[in-house]
């Protein structure tokens, strides 16, 4: 019965995370939901999330406590630590005993122990060959997460990763579509301008475009801007 109850709780957690994936969803809200659910369901005292920014730097994007946020900020600023290693390698980093096994990251070791954390489990936010961050589970107890908890943590991270990459792709696609539409609109104006120049300068259509282009370059203007001036009769180009 307890197993069924936990299964239902895990299922409900996935529903809550998925429920944040609405149109124009709030990325910060989704990431905060992710770390909140991780602490509520997994054997973790606190959770935090590091996400890479466009400049390639890791930033703390969500945290369940000031204590875990402090440890993560120190790692991101120093560029070293198990959470940073998790991001860079795209592999799980598990530190069973920070006091005994954390000497490779002395700054992290000191900070984590000072905040009462004794073990850590870091999960990469990875899809195929792209890693965008790490979900980090801090624990006050020694030892590793159970295999079941580790699998759930990875599943949480995977759901968030897919949604973030999808949102980014949609945003980039929207930018590309906007640029394409702007180019199409400009092309229409340029065709109109060619017709005007052909009439006023008694030139061929090809010759009209050459005149338009030469004028734009000579006056350091875009083709679109020059064409609009011609169409609006604010500029006359002659051969």
From TrEMBL:
Keyword annotations from UniProtKB, A to Z: Kinase, Transcription, Transcription regulation, Transferase
PROSITE patterns: ANTAR
Single GO MF descriptor: RNA binding
Organism: Arthrobacter wenxiniae
The name this protein goes by in its record: GAF and ANTAR domain-containing protein
Database matches in SMART domains: ANTAR (SM01012), GAF (SM00065)
Keyword Nucleus: no
Domain ANTAR: 170-231
Keyword Membrane: no
Xref: InterPro entries: ANTAR, CheY-like_superfamily, GAF, GAF-like_dom_sf, GAF_ANTAR, WH-like_DNA-bd_sf
Source organism phylogeny: Bacteria, Bacillati, Actinomycetota, Actinomycetes, Micrococcales
């Amino acid at each position: 019965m307890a197993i069924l109850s936990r299964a239902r709780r895990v299922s409900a957690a996935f529903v809550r995370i998925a429920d944040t994936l609405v149109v124009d969803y709030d990325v910060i809200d989704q990431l905060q939901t992710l770390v909140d659910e991780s602490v509520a369901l997994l054997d973790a005292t606190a959770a935090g999330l590091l996400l890479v920014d466009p400049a390639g730097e890791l930033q703390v994007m969500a945290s369940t406590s000031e204590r875990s946020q402090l440890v993560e900020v120190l790692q991101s600023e120093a560029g070293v630590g198990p959470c940073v290693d998790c991001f860079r390698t795209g592999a799980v980093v598990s530190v069973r005993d920070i006091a005994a096994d954390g000497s490779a990251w002395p700054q992290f070791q000191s900070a984590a122990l000072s905040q009462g954390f004794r073990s850590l489990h870091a999960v990469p936010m990875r899809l195929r060959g792209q890693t965008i961050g790490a979900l980090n589970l801090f624990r006050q107890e020694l030892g590793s997460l159970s295999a079941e908890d580790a699998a759930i943590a990875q599943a949480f991270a995977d759901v968030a990763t897919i949604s973030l990459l999808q949102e980014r792709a949609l945003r980039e696609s929207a930018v590309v579509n906007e640029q394409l539409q702007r180019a199409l609109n400009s092309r229409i104006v340029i065709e109109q301008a060619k017709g005007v120049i052909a009439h006023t300068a008694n030139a061929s259509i090809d010759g009209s475009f050459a005149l338009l282009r030469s004028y734009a370059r000579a006056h350091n203007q875009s083709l679109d801007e020059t064409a609009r001036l011609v169409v609006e009769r604010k500029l006359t180009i002659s051969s």
